Amino acid sequence: MKNVPRVGFGYDIHRLTAGRPLILGGVRIDSDRGLLGHSDGDAVLHALADAIFGAIGVGDIGEHFPDSDVRNEGLDSRRIIGAALQETAAAGLIVQSVDVTILAERPKLGPVKEEIRRSLSDLLNLPLEAVGVKARTNEGLGPVGQQQAIACYAVVVVA
Fold it and tell me: What is the set of domains in the chain, with CATH numbers?
């Protein structure tokens, strides 16, 4: 079943807090608050890693990078994506395309969507046209809408 396309879905949410950089999709974004997390808190890369792990059937990000492991403290989430890609290659598969939707009220992400898209293209070694990045607000609803958090949904296709 190695050449049959597989789909993976991922989701992540992190609380916004002062004193941390805001990193989304491997891109540092100008903001007075960043995402709280054991690692760098990059909700985009965490959702993407979960989608990749799910597509290849090897668990989730918490199993591969538990927050109880001090080695993961402050971890650059690009390393998590690197590990997910290694697992994908070990399974004889490659990531074919990705699509992410970032939910945030502030900062407005329209001006950095293309930079995030290029970052994901580079990280995943994919052509730009195989990477989708969308940014939405939550219309003032819930923790994202109340500017307490940023969330991300991710879908990947591997074959």
Answer: 6-158 (3.30.1330.50)
> For residue 3, what pLDDT is reported?
73
Residue 137 identity (one-letter amino acid): T
Exposure string over 53-78, b if 16+ CB within 10 A, otherwise e: bbbbeeeebeebbeeeeeebeebebb
d(CA 40, CA 34): 9
Structure tokens that stand for 39 in this block: 């690692």
Mean pLDDT in consecutive groups of 10 residues from the start of the chain, 159 residues = 86 98 98 96 98 97 92 94 98 97 97 98 98 98 98 98
Distance CA 84, CA 17 (A): 27
Global pTM?
0.96
Query: CA angle, 85 as apex, 83 and 91 as ends, to 5°?
Result: 105
